Amino acid sequence: MGMIYLLDTANLEQIKKAFEFYPMSGVTTNPTIISKENRNFLDILKEIREVIGEDKMLHVQALGATAEEIVKEAEYLSQAIGGNLYIKIPVIPEGIKAMMILKQKGMKITATAIFTAQQALMAAVAGADFVAPYVNRIDNISGSGVDVVAQIVQLFENYALDAKVLAASFKNVQQVQEVALAGGHSVTVNAEIMDALLTHPLTDWSVNQFITDWEKVYGAKKLTYDVK
Ligand code: E4P
Among the four 29, 135, 183, 188, which has the fewest Cβ within 10 Å? Predict the structure, then answer.
């Protein structure tokens, strides 16, 4: 299956660009990310769905403080947005309760705001399809986000759980690299990091050199110059 790349943004221009150029599997949002767009949230989500199509994953976070509210929000979002939708639910007790209820109803769940492997394990047992450890936020409190990812991967193996790690909260490419080496199944990154994953000055230099060498001999003629 390979690495699953998701874009952590609600910005339509960034989403269009990433989906045009990169092998994206979906988009993740959270209330902070949506609020940055500063307009009607349902319009934003519907437009994202339109851009990425019905089949790509769209992860949208519930805001309710009780399981009852979270379930209500999940059903509302499912009606309003549709397609391949994942409801993001924080790993608080009411959230775990909501996950169990929504699982019964056949909805897809991403457990979020994860800082420890035990939170991820319980969420997966409760029915989460993805669990989202916040790598950079863990690093920022002198923990190791990558270690938490590695532990979750190991626990899911130990208990033969199908849930996948959706590592989140990245600030640099090295964190993504280490998460990938640790067996993280998927990452959600912002547009800047998505670009940075591919960028290397020597790649650009090499590409320019190929063109320069070609043009010295063939001038402006393209590789396809004799294609009729
Ligand atoms: C993940 O679910 C969150 O949306 C996000 O990745 C958190 O990232 P941040 O720590 O950069 O806010």
Answer: 183
Distance 213 CA to ligand 1 centre (A): 44
Nearest CA to ligand 1 atom 12: 169
Number of domains, the chain: 2
Residue 29 CA to ligand 1 center (angstroms) comes to: 8
Q: Whole-model pTM? A: 0.95
Of 122, 121, 146, 124, give the one whose Cα is nearest residue 136: 146
Q: Which domain holds residue 91?
A: 4-197
* pLDDT, one tens digit for every residue, the chain (228 residues): 799 999 999 999 999 999 999 999 999 999 999 999 999 999 999 999 999 999 999 999 999 999 999 999 999 999 999 999 999 999 999 999 999 999 999 999 999 999 999 999 999 999 999 999 999 999 999 999 999 999 999 999 999 999 999 999 999 999 999 999 999 999 999 999 999 999 999 999 999 999 999 999 999 989 898 776
**Are residue 79 and residue 154 in the same domain, yes or no?**
yes
Q: Same structural domain for residues 173 and 215? A: no
Looking at the structure, do residues 189 and 217 belong to the same domain, yes or no?
Answer: no
The answer, yes or no, to whether any atom of ligand 1 lies below 6 A from the CB of 132, is yes
Distance, in Å, from the CA atom of 200 to the CA atom of 103, rounded to the nearest integer, reads 43
The reply to whether ligand 1 has any atom less than 6 angstroms from the CB of 29 is no
